[in-house]
Amino acid sequence: MAETEQQPGSTPEDEAAEAAAGVAFIVPKKEISMVPDMGKWKRSQAYADYIGFILTLNEGVKGKKLTCEYKVSETVEKLLDLLETLDRWINETPPVDQPSRFGNKAYRTWFSKLDQEAEALVSTVLPPEKAAAAPEIAVYLKESVGNSTRIDYGTGHEAAFAAFLCCLCKVGALRVDDQLAIVFKVFNRYLSVMRKLQRTYRMEPAGSQGVWGLDDFQFLPFIWGSSQFIDHPTLEPRHFIDERVVNEHHQDYMFLECIKFINEMKTGPFAEHSNQLWNISAVPSWSKVNQGLIRMYKAECLEKFPVIQHFKFGSLLSIQPAKP
């Protein structure tokens, strides 16, 4: 999340290099087409930048409530407007009558609107001197809302939204002091739009591991949400399966918002429909939960070919080997 402002006293050569860099944006494309390519991904600058971004935010939200005070920049406000637009389009695109309960085809109408407008939407968020980055960054926004062929949504789509935010940091639209707002405002609003999409169009979970996965749709809010709880004086992991605790504290904690959504969407005993989370509730401390979830995220999402084969690489998230 380095700042990319011109350093005082920069030479014309620096500025020429900056200008050239501005031209070098490219439309991201898939690079991981076979299982052996996974090594290339794990060694890539994109992997290093992506995991660094996730962990920086994990550190930033540690011990903080959603309702705490933090700076909300103009870029953050613009991102919230963008997400508000996506939400409004759902209202304007009601589900259609169809024989199958799942995968409502109206989702494709909604998606085609985003497909057409994504670049224009992203342009509103970028500083004028980075306007050339819009086509590159817009790809990640389009990838972050699910698949319009299969009408499904999963952790790979969620990763595309984190990649979208990471790119906005790399071009300097989002800054280091936006960290809390990135998670608590922008990502949280994204989650509420995704839940509305999943509900409205009865989206299928992409590559779901069923009862053995952490959650049908999301992963990152469990990581960042567990970090929020680190060193909490009273709430321990064993408390999140208590519905009273969830109802009382979900406005403050992302993790509990996720549990609340699961409770609304699923019936039957929690231990049966969400076995992994049930197991996590037995872990003694939130810092252990947090560390375990980061390991699990790497193993179950970032190191799984079916997820990463869809990831796209451009100039901002590069497939080139990471700088040592």
Automatic annotation (TrEMBL):
UniProt cross-references to InterPro entries, sorted A to Z = Phstyr_phstse_ac, PTPA_C_lid, PTPA_sf
Q: Where in the cell is it found?
A: Cytoplasm; Nucleus
Q: What is its EC number?
A: 5.2.1.8
Q: Name one GO biological process term.
A: mitotic spindle organization
Q: Which GO terms describe its molecular function?
A: ATP binding; metal ion binding; peptidyl-prolyl cis-trans isomerase activity; protein tyrosine phosphatase activator activity
Q: What does this protein do?
A: PPIases accelerate the folding of proteins. It catalyzes the cis-trans isomerization of proline imidic peptide bonds in oligopeptides. Acts as a regulatory subunit for serine/threonine-protein phosphatase 2A (PP2A). Modulates PP2A activity or substrate specificity, probably by inducing a conformational change in the catalytic subunit, a proposed direct target of the PPIase. Can reactivate inactive phosphatase PP2A-phosphatase methylesterase complexes (PP2A(i)) in presence of ATP and Mg(2+).
This protein is called what?
A: Serine/threonine-protein phosphatase 2A activator
Q: Which organism is it from?
A: Amphiprion ocellaris (Clown anemonefish)
**What is the taxonomic lineage of the source species?**
Eukaryota, Metazoa, Chordata, Craniata, Vertebrata
